[in-house]
Amino acid sequence: MENKLSNIRTGRVTSGEIVDLMSNGTSRGSVGAPFKSYVEACIMERFFKAPSDETSAEVFHFHWGKLCERIVHELLGTEYVFQSDVTLMHPELEEWVGTPDGLKSSKKLKEIITVILEEKGYKILQAKTVTDIKCPTSKKGFYNLVRDLYIFDGVNVTKREKINGNDVIKMIRDRSKEGKKYYWQLVSNACITGAEYAELIVYMPYFEELQDIKLFNTSEDGPGYYTIERKTIEELPYLMKETGIDNLNIIRFKVPEEDKKALRARVELAIDEINQG
Fold first, then answer.
1. Which tens digits make up the pLDDT trace of 174-224?
2. Where are the domains of the chain?
3. Distance between CA atoms of 145 and 246, rounded to whole angstroms?
4. Which residues face 197 on adjacent strands?
5. What is the 3-state secondary structure (H, E, C) of 186-238?
6. How much is the pTM?
7. Which SS3 state, helix, strand or coil, does residue 257 take?
8. How confident is the model at residue 81 (pLDDT cuts 50, 70, 90)?
9. CATH of domain 53-256
């Protein structure tokens, strides 16, 4: 069955891979090879009118993330609006789209957004905060995202009482390729939704939660992802409670206006090249 997002996302610039557009070349002001490769991939998607191929490993990562997104939103407060199956379009550039996992807003705006999602399928939205949930499938990936939220003395882990979200997201961005990708994904979705703030929400279940997650996946209301159904409990990502690490971690930061402007400039350049074929 055709992915209901395909017609909206195919051949357009999307938040998920937009980090490639921020790559720089060797000369001042030039774009890097990832920028050119991304543009070529979008052109190819338009040529075939279909998204690029995925490997089996990518499918499992996708399935695990989509399943855990639903679980995370059950853990979050009522001010969060879950909408990760709805692709949104930039208000001025229709070839720039994104699929944020959620929006965070006032009660009144939440009610408006919910009606729009139910009646329109997708629409340009305005929200104060845009969110994205990351559910790493490896402990290293999880560690790279949450380590700055904790104090580790070589034996014990303690949650920091206060953090500066902008400082933490900068360290995440600078630490790994995935961190940089997640950062620019949030910036992109903030541009699309008009959000001033962004939250990176990182989740890895405790071992005690895995059985319920497996059962939910195969239940009548569950998504039924075959890659998860085939794995044993021990093969799924998990934390031990005795580590002192939270299964749910939220990093909130104000999205820098200069980064929004820089990203938009690269997106406009990419769209021009994609349209030229």
1. 999 999 999 999 999 999 988 999 999 999 999 999 999 999 999 999 999
2. 53-256
3. 13
4. 129, 254
5. HHHHHHHHCCCEEEEEEECCEHHHHHHHHHHHHCCCCCCCHHHHCCCHHHCCC
6. 0.90
7. helix
8. confident
9. 3.90.320
